[in-house]
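[audit] Reproducing an earlier prediction to check determinism. Same input, same settings, fresh worker. If the tokens differ from the archived copy the diff job will pick it up downstream; this log only records the rerun itself.
[audit] input (173 residues):
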Amino acid sequence: MACLLAALTPARAAAQASAPKEQVKAAFLFDFTKFVDWPASAFAGARSPFVMAVLGDATLAALLERVVAGETAKGRPIAVERIARPQDLPPCQLLYVSDAQRRRLKEALARVRGEPVLTVAEMPGFNRAGGIINFEVRGGKLGFAINKAAADEAGLKISSQLLGLALNTRELR
């Protein structure tokens, strides 16, 4: 896993062994923005921010806010939106769904289906349900699996570099 994190951002590689899992997830979420391309239609305008929505995990949202403070994604300022319910979901480019929202997963995914939104979670069956990136713990290390078919359906282009780093890339459809 250290190699995986190092490939994304060398500064975060050393933190992998000692950082709490939620901190590593926040770093990954930011790093994913560097390896995925969104179509121009994903943004309301040329000056629109890159919106990262976090459904049901205030701790991760707070960590993500710290990780992205002062950073940009695709040349845009980053805004982190904390969301309690899927119906409150704003237009966004990345949506993280917490495991606590498992019972609302279908609704959350339905709200972004067909939209250029990178969906991310850490829950069993997320990729099979149509989610794009699912965090997985293997051998005590955090990695991720990618559902490339879901990314293609969303109109997102995931770099071959990120696909190569995934624990497994799934063509599920």
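[audit] rerun output stored. Observation attached for the diff report: The mean pLDDT is 88.
[audit] end
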